[in-house]
UniProtKB/TrEMBL annotation:
Key word Electron transport present: no
Protein name listed in UniProt: GCN5-related N-acetyltransferase
InterPro entries: Acyl_CoA_acyltransferase, GNAT_dom
Organism lineage string: unclassified sequences, metagenomes, ecological metagenomes
SUPFAM superfamilies attached to this UniProt entry: Acyl-CoA N-acyltransferases (Nat)
Keywords: Transferase
GO molecular function: acyltransferase activity, transferring groups other than amino-acyl groups
Gene3D superfamilies according to UniProt: 3.40.630.30
Entry keyword Transferase: yes
Domain N-acetyltransferase stretches: 18-129
Length: 129
């Protein structure tokens, strides 16, 4: 799907207590249940190694919905690609997953809003998944 992010305002939805933040390399063990829901195998060590790629970078970018109780409600990963035919970038969502017990409670919307808000200063006018 496609989302136009060149409009003013952001949706605010909060079905559960959570904080959207950048993923960290030490989140590997917390990410495993979400990665398994996407069908990806892995270990805490392999997840941490992949997360190191995302740490501190502008792109690729990964955000998580942290419940504050040593569990994550969801994650979103995205990349920016420069456009050839016009100035700016295309944002590509490469992963979005919400924990089963958090589905239908605004987590996915909050993650999409957060990654879009973080992309606006990078001249991104469209997000694709």
């Amino acid at each position: 799907g496609s989302r136009n992010i060149c409009s003013d305002g952001a949706r605010v939805t909060s079905g559960i207590a959570m904080r959207i933040r950048a993923a960290r390399p030490d989140d590997g063990a917390l990410l495993l249940p979400l990665l398994h829901e996407l069908g990806y195998p892995g270990t805490p060590e392999s997840a941490s190694a992949q997360l190191a790629i995302y740490a501190g970078g502008n792109t690729p970018r990964m955000l998580v919905a942290d419940r504050g109780d040593s569990s994550l409600a969801g994650l979103i990963a995205g990349h920016l690609m420069p456009l050839l035919h016009q100035p700016g970038n295309l944002g590509r969502i490469t992963a979005l997953v919400v924990a089963r017990d958090a589905q239908g409670r605004g987590v996915g919307t909050a993650l999409l809003d957060a990654i879009e808000a973080g992309s606006r200063h990078k001249t991104v006018c469209a997000m694709r998944s």
